Amino acid sequence: MVHAQDTGWITGSVTDPTGAPVPKATVNLILHGGSKPVATTVTTAQGLFTLQTLRPVYYDLTVDAPGFQQYQLDNVKVDPSRPTDLPKIELKVAALAASVNVTAGLETVQTTSPELSTTVTAEQIERLPVGDRNPLGFISTQSGISPANANGYETDINGQRSSFSNVTLDGMNIQDNYIRTGDLDYTPNEPLLSQVQEFTVVSSNQGTASSGGASQVNFTTPSGTNQFHGSVFWQNRNNKFAANDFFDNSDGNPLPRLNLNQAGVSVGGPIKKDKLFFYTTYELYRLKSQEEADATILTSTARQGIFSWVTPTGQIQQANILNIVGLPMDPLMSQLLAQVPDASHINNYRVGDSEPGQLLNTAGYGYYVRNNQERDNAEGKMDYYINPTNSITATYAWNRDRVDRPDVGLDYGTIPPFQNDDSRNLITAAWRVNPRPTLTNEVRAGANIAPATFGYTGSGGPLPSYLIGGMDYTSPQAYENSSILAQGRNTRTYSIQDNATWTHGRHTIKFGAFYQADYVRTYDYTGTIPAYNVGIASTNQSGNLLFQSNLPTASALQLNSANLLLASLAGLIDDDGQTFNVTSQTSGFVPGAPYLRHFTYDNLAFYGQDEWKVLPRLTVTAGLRWEYDSPVNERDSLELQPLVTGTPEQTLLSDATLYYTGNSINRPFYRKDLNNFAPNVGLAWDPFGKGKTSVRAGYSISYVNDEAITVAEAFTDTNPGLVYPVANF
Q1: What is the distance of C-alpha 715 from the center of its chain?
Q2: pLDDT score at 62
Q3: Of 59, 257, 528, 636, which has the highest C-beta tally within 10 A?
Q4: What are the CA-CA distances from residue 532 to residues 164, 345, 465, 527, 615 (Å)?
Q5: Tens digit of pLDDT for each residue in 435-474?
Q6: What is the mean predicted confidence (pLDDT) over 219-231?
């Protein structure tokens, strides 16, 4: 939370022609092209001024003092979450009614703040190409940031874990506060370019007003101005001029479908000039594509129970293994096999034991699966300048994302049976008040409702009463080919913050409070359906029903393959398992009930900071922040922990008693930590007084949410009693 994590501020000084400070000069800030002030302040006895909590747009600034000409500076750019430090303003002695007009030049560096920060502006965003219109892709263009790569490394800032960074949109956290891994590469709200005007990355030496991370990425949404502006775009990418993949060609598959349409419209402007502004945007993303899936299927002889193998002399031999052991084809396995494409669909040998010109028992079937994505993003923003001392702003953002998940599980169909289908809602509102020229206060509140579901939506109907897997061919049961059943989470984040700034003499004192509440409902049906794996039971003395005497020329590996084919056809069960969950503290284990938890996690903080302009070109910053992170809690106290008797070591060595844990029964997960004090000191020096060179140094401590909920959940989940997996081998 760097000044509400989306606003900026202007600092400067006013002198007369001799270099003496001009006190009580009136400094007005006007929206560029407007005529009425939207913010105002006066200079201190030392001629210093600061204008706080400003939305990041272009302004015109005027300075008025008795006996001096009016000074006007046009096109002053304010960036989010960082200061705009103006060069010294020198007033001219009044002569008639003349005034001094200046147009802002090149951007100056930060000369009053020790923070290391950079801003990616709207102009840069427009110039840089980005195919998916995802603004998160611009983060890695900044210094000190390592982008994600194919080896599984996530985007990080200065080598920190990605969960150490805080990402906001208009001051509201938009990260997944349940699973925070990869929080710089994915946000549930998935903002697109038309929703972002610019953003600032604070990579080091952040002030005590910052919360949620040791580094900050603060996005701001566009606002309307005194002129109407709008845009319409459409872009298309398709496979018309694309080449086919080598393996698709070799499998005889045509060019997979690819047709991506991205379109959007935005408009913003004044409802009442200098007073009330609006901005609204809508973008759609429609991806129609396919990807190849590889399945292992049986040859025509293997489907009949005839096992084929290559002898050491290179001859192919066959034997009906069902007849050898005297077992019939199992009816259930026959029904399952009937759902598997027959041998006429074999089109590759990347899987299985067959080779071109030599069909044995298994081979590959490559086919196309739909891999579509449909996304809609909409946003609206209102800015109301009631008067120079009061203003209100509010943002609402909505996105819906429906994604095919062929990577999760397949059933030989062309439409993946698993999909994500989520709608997210974000709202923020802020009230800025300037009760005195040297005092500014902003109150900001927001909510982010961000579900993430993994659901079964295929044509297979309701979940079956059992699952069968382990065959030597790919199961047609999508559930068996998946590591999940229906699962997901609904993460809700609420926050409120108050930030005040008081300018007194050479001191700019900032203080405030912050509160954020995270609520997570997480559920998982995985394991709740009985699952059976075929194979030769290990209770058999040798682990086989077919022996060397049955297939004299077969190797040990070929015998294992023969036994697996036998089990796949005859329905021989090797192992089975099912997971049982409770639904309350008194329910006992309920068959078919999912793992369901409701976690809460709160953060409360107070801070104070003094920016002391020791010399005209030297600013020293010192502050302190106190953080309180509440112990993670489960609403229904459905977690177990051991009852500590004596020391923890003695408890571990004893038959410890497990008991329910949670705030509802006055047994918190762990003790409160009330000594999280985060100091912050730094300096910024302008050695030449030109605003083009800055020397900065700083030291700070930050407290972060590093997977707090999932870590607590993982530790309590290891205590048995509420989740009971049953397995027979």
Answers
A1: 24
A2: 95
A3: 59
A4: 42, 27, 11, 11, 77
A5: 999 999 999 999 999 999 888 765 445 667 888 999 999 9
A6: 93
State the burial class of residue 337 (Cβ atoms within 10 Å of its Cβ: 0-12, 13-18, 19+): buried
Give me the helices (H) in 330-443, please. Answer: 331-338
d(CA 455, CA 470): 23
Among 217, 489, 270, 262, which residue's Cα sits nearest to residue 377? 262
**β-sheet bridge partners, residue 605:** 514, 627
Residue of 391, 396, 319 lying closest to 55 (CA atoms):
391
CA-CA distance, 716 to 97, in Å (whole number)? 75
Q: How far apart are CA 206 and CA 623, in angstroms?
A: 11
Pairing status of strand 507-524 against strand 487-504: antiparallel
Buried b (16+ CB within 10 A) or exposed e, 506-526: bebbbbbebbbbbbbbbbbbb
Inter-axis angle of helices 331-338 and 556-570, nearest 10: 100
Residues 648-681: b if buried by 16+ CB within 10 A, e if exposed = eeeeeeeebeeebbbbeeeebbeeeeeeeebebb
**Quick one: DSSP state of residue 244?**
P
Distance CA 264, CA 502 (A): 42
Angle among Cα 228, 231, 233 to the nearest 5 degrees reads 175
pTM metric for this prediction: 0.88
- Two structure tokens written together for 231: 């845009």
The conformation of residue 195, written as its DSSP 8-state character, comes to: G
CA–CA distance, 525 with 297 (Å, rounded to integer): 29
Q: Where are the beta strands (DSSP E) in 181-301?
A: 198-204, 215-220, 229-238, 258-272, 276-298
- In angstroms, rounded to a whole number, what is the distance separating the alpha carbons of residues 629 and 624? 16
Interstrand relation of 99-103 and 70-77 (parallel, antiparallel or unpaired): parallel
